[in-house]
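Recap from last week: sequence in, structure out.
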Amino acid sequence: MASQVAAVKNTNEGENARKDLGFCGRVKNKVVEFPMKLKKLGQDDPRRIVHSLKVGLAVLLVSLLYYFDPLYDGLGATAMWAVLTVVVVFEFSVGATLGRGLNRILATFLAGSLGFGVHHLANLSGEKGHPILIGVFVFILAASVTFFRFFPRIKARYDYGLLIFILTFCMISVSGYRDEEILEMAHKRASTILIGAFTAVSVCVFICPVWAGDDLHNSVATNIEKLGSFLEGFGSECFQKSCKGGESNKALLKGYCSVLNSKQSEESQVNFARWEPRHGRFRFRHPWKHYLKIGSLTRQCAYRIDTLNGYINSEIQTPLNIQSTKVQELCMKISSESSKALKELALAMKTMTQPTTATAHIIKSRIAANSLKSFLKSPGLGGDIHLLDIIPAVTVASLLTDVVAYAEQIEKSIQELASLSHVQFKSAEPKTEQEQTKLHKHGIVHPCAATDGPHHVITIVQPSLKKSKTKASINGNG
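Predicted structure tokens:
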């Protein structure tokens, strides 16, 4: 309570200090803070600085159409369309730039050809029918193309192209009513747009390219790793530090909260990645849509973690007080094994290798979850434990069980991605000679995940080869 009062007091003092500065003081502070914000923006992602320089270079290159007389004499004032094309087409990633560039080129050529055809057809109808026929075509095409934009798939990939189609068709067909040299105008405009789009795509692809596929792949893997980091510190934060939510818990909250709002970003990155050619570890026609499935499962797991974290650190609800040592141990076991499984899956995604130990960790977490369920259902919990003391344990057990279930589904989705034909997932590194010798000497028995009772580990030790040979020689001599 005292810390909250002090925080409120400091906030009020800060607001009063800002009011005392006046208008000039506030403007001065903003001017001083602006360079710091620019520095932080560049440090967060240095590729932003490179992208800005690339846009400046592309605009400079197409501006040369105005500076050289032979180029300007051939294109005239329509050279400005090349500059406009670079400005509107150049995007941060290669996929986004290719998508907008191809949309603009195809829409310009189709709309230009159709506009010239409509103009020629309108000329055959005479002077009175010319404007009527053009108006009818403009109305029908503009209304039809606008309606097509409501289809989700078309809007996701071709929305910009449809807009350019309407704009180009209207400009050519309507302006052709007054301008007789419509074919030359359409040719110059298409040529300058083609030059601008080619310049933007070339600079974006060949100078420090930013691939949307790489960003999507790393983003999905990082989101899985954030969930594993939260579960790694969940046990110590909850049971060993009395669940008061210190600075480390706040850092974990900031980590997994970004996963909750990742849907829109992942969908846009998938659309951009589908335009990209083969690059790096990703072949042409890479199954980018499968990343949406993995991302959806990751967000569902993050929602359970968010509910768990909100239940633990809530100021309204009763603080979590699980007095049973058995429940604490099982909860920590579930969170620890789930964390190891998720981090193993995240590493497998980043390195594109087959996950080897994730299944074993998931099996262990599933066994612990089943044991926790059985323990909470057992009638012999003790007469001193009241119902209100059991409710927090049941809630935590239910949420952790859901986390284990989603971790298992994430593991299956990654295995399914690795098995697809267009994906190059490397096999796990072979074990060293010491590990292989150890496996030959010891027989490992994996527990059954569906068993709720006590588990026993049986270790079978085989005699070494040297000892058996020695015994055989002794028996032979005897």
